[in-house]
Design a protein that fits this description.
Shape: globular
Mean pLDDT: 74
Number of strands: 0
Radius of gyration: 12 Å
Number of domains: 1
Structural class: mainly alpha
CATH class: Mainly Alpha
CATH superfamily: lambda repressor-like DNA-binding domains
Helix content: 55-70%
Largest sheet: none
Strand content: under 5%
CATH topology: 434 Repressor (Amino-terminal Domain)
Order of helices and strands: HHHH
């Protein structure tokens, strides 16, 4: 496997972990997050498990939804930047 593929896999895994952590901190199920973001629960599971990476448009939606900087390190959504549920 090429180095670039390994880097992408790490990036997907890191993003998925950070997304799951932020989602759980807000007390949301995968189904609730999926409904809010307009995607399927299965797709949320794929992102969280590192099998899929969201499109730039979905990254922007996730960033707004979770209250994080879309230009920041997607693999490390800091706890302090997770928006409180409204």
């Amino acid at each position: 496997m090429a180095a670039g593929a390994n880097e992408m896999k790490m990036s997907r895994s890191g993003y998925g972990y950070a997304f799951r952590r932020a989602r759980q901190q807000r007390g949301l199920t995968q189904a609730a997050a999926a409904k809010r973001l307009g995607v399927s629960q299965g797709y949320i599971a794929q992102i969280e498990n590192g099998r899929s990476y969201p499109s730039p448009a979905l990254v922007a939606k996730v960033s707004e939804f979770l209250g994080v900087d879309p230009e920041g390190d997607a693999g490390a959504i800091p706890e302090a930047h997770v928006a409180e549920p409204t």
